[in-house]
Amino acid sequence: MVQNKTDKTLKLIRLSEVIRKTGFGKTWIYKLISAGKFPKQIKIGERAVAFIESEVDEWIYKAITASRNTSN
């Protein structure tokens, strides 16, 4: 694992883990990425991609916060 400047350990996760964490399907995740509304994947091999777990977790936290701060 790699340490970033804020001393957080970076971990790469595969799409299956992103699907598990968000509850979204593959197609919806890639639509959100295309719209600039979800963290973009990184290429880790010739035919493999992964996501940075902390970016996905931050996106989830922001989605929860936005949902709870919406006036009803």
Automatic annotation (TrEMBL):
Signal peptide positions on this chain: none
Pfam families in UniProt: Phage_AlpA
GO MF annotations, alphabetized: DNA binding
Keywords, ordered alphabetically: DNA-binding
Superkingdom, natural source: Bacteria
Claim: Nucleus is one of the keywords in the record: no
Classification via PANTHER family: DNA-BINDING TRANSCRIPTIONAL ACTIVATOR ALPA
Protein name (Swiss-Prot/TrEMBL): DNA-binding protein
Organism: Citrobacter freundii
